[in-house]
Fold this protein.
Amino acid sequence: MTVAARVLRRLVERGETLAVAESLTGGLVAAELTSVPGASQSFRGAVTAYATPLKRDVLGVDGTLLAERGAVDPDVARGMAAGVRRVLGTDWGVSTTGVAGPEAQDGKPVGTVYVALSGPSGTEKVTALRLNGGRADIRRETVRSVLELLSSELGENVGAQDTEQNGGN
């Protein structure tokens, strides 16, 4: 079972919903989620805020923060996750922002990536990544990382839980 399938299964079990805000991944997280049959039970939608003004105007990321630090920043990732959660009315929001290359952006080297989540009860987490490889590699690893971040937060270890539940029979 893929990470996306495990995350969606866990969200359904919990009766919760998810929205995604993407920058460098350009819709790849949403594509990974919607490749899972039945994704619509918990996945509500995504905002691909590739251009910096959209992070401000659609997702509500602080304009001063964007002007001072640029789009590749942990607080921007946090704001994107909270913003998409608010805008799409979901329990969980996750986000991706970073530099996939081929050139540095806002003084940040290629492979600098931040993934974040925002959830119920004020839950917020941001993970800084330093990824290697080409543009496609960086984007693919970002998708995996943001889904793993959410999986971990959901207490997701379905494989181990299944083994425990089914073991000893």
User: Anything to note?
Assistant: The two ends are 23 Å apart (CA to CA).
